């Protein structure tokens, strides 16, 4: 039996933004859960009404994805009001952690954390969001030395433009001019218990081969949303979505906090608007988990999780998957 690459892993519901990890000898997938509705879409992301998370697991790359049921719902998060968007998970010191963005009761996106004794949940949320957190798309990377980092941030509906001054500016929608350095994602080292930032989040620099910042007008390469970090042969690989040009791309660094030198495209545009992913090693092979809107024939808030094998070239660059 061959792995069912590029086919929907989950067909009983719409899922997106898959965060894949190897826990307890299995592949665990933490996606968002798209609600099935027919309201219009807009650039603010109001069509993405997700309100809960399900956890899925695969025994191996040839196995079906098993639904472990509802792991967390917005009603069980005291500080959150709506839009439980793309999550991530991590393990440390005998506990599993689920990190998630949601709008607070003032409509501002914050990042919360919940924990469980099982990778499948259910997860119990902390009563408040992580102090100093904002925007969307948390991705947590636990390094070989035990230090943990959260990467996050998304443009447009993700509100990153509204934080350029260091404070939330509700009416602000403008970003840098096209000939200026693009807005970067954020990174913060986490405390040992993974419940707080060790210091205020810092902006990540993404540069070209000459060391020049990627510009805001360079929509083929600039950061939009969906960060992910993985490590391979001593290099840190920071990958992300370009948003408007619908690609997954990446840069590399010797430092988990960057700067990252842009290297190329992991995944070309798929059916639908958004592209959000994770990269995981299992049983000596690397896999890319991503989503598209093929199951709904292109409706961008009715998405489905897929995966494929990922390959490295001899020089350490990633071979484009599609």
Automatic annotation (TrEMBL):
Active site, renumbered: 38 (proton acceptor), 203 (proton donor)
Domain of life per record: Bacteria
Keywords noted in UniProt: Carbohydrate metabolism, Glycosidase, Hydrolase, Polysaccharide degradation, Xylan degradation
Pfam family, one: Glyco_hydro_43
GO MF annotation: an example: hydrolase activity, hydrolyzing O-glycosyl compounds
Site, Important for catalytic activity, responsible for pKa modulation of the active site Glu and correct orientation of both the proton donor and substrate: residue positions: 137
UniProt record, GO biological process: xylan catabolic process
Similarity section: Belongs to the glycosyl hydrolase 43 family.
Annotated protein name in UniProt: Family 43 glycosylhydrolase
């Amino acid at each position: 039996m061959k792995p069912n690459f590029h086919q929907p892993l989950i067909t009983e519901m719409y899922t997106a933004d898959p965060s894949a990890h190897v826990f307890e000898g299995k592949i665990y997938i933490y996606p968002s859960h798209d609600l099935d509705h027919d309201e219009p879409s807009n650039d603010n992301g109001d069509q993405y009404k997700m309100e809960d998370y399900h956890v899925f697991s695969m025994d191996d790359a040839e196995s079906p994805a098993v639904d472990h049921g509802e792991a967390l719902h917005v009603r069980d998060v005291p500080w959150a009001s709506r839009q439980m968007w793309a999550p991530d998970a991590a393990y440390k010191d005998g506990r599993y952690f689920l990190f998630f963005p949601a709008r607070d009761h003032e409509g501002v996106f914050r990042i919360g954390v919940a924990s469980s004794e099982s990778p499948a949940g259910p997860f119990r949320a902390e009563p408040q969001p992580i102090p100093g957190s904002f925007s969307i798309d948390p991705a947590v990377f636990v390094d070989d030395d035990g230090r943990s980092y959260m990467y996050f941030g998304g443009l447009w509906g993700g509100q990153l433009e509204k934080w350029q001054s260091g404070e939330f500016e509700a009416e602000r929608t403008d970003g840098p001019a096209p000939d200026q350095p693009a807005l970067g994602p954020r990174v913060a080292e986490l405390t040992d218990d993974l419940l707080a930032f060790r210091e205020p989040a810092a902006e990540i620099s993404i540069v070209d081969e000459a060391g020049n910042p990627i510009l805001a007008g360079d929509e083929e390469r600039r950061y939009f949303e969906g960060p992910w970090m993985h490590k391979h042969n001593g290099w840190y690989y920071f990958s992300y979505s370009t948003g408007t040009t619908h690609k997954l791309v990446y840069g590399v660094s010797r430092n988990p906090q960057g700067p990252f030198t842009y290297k190329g495209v992991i995944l070309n545009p798929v059916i639908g608007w958004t592209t959000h992913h994770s990269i995981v090693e299992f049983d000596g092979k690397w896999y890319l988990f991503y989503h598209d809107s093929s199951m709904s024939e292109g409706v961008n808030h009715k998405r489905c999780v897929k995966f494929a094998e990922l390959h490295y070239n001899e020089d350490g660059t990633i071979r484009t998957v599609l």
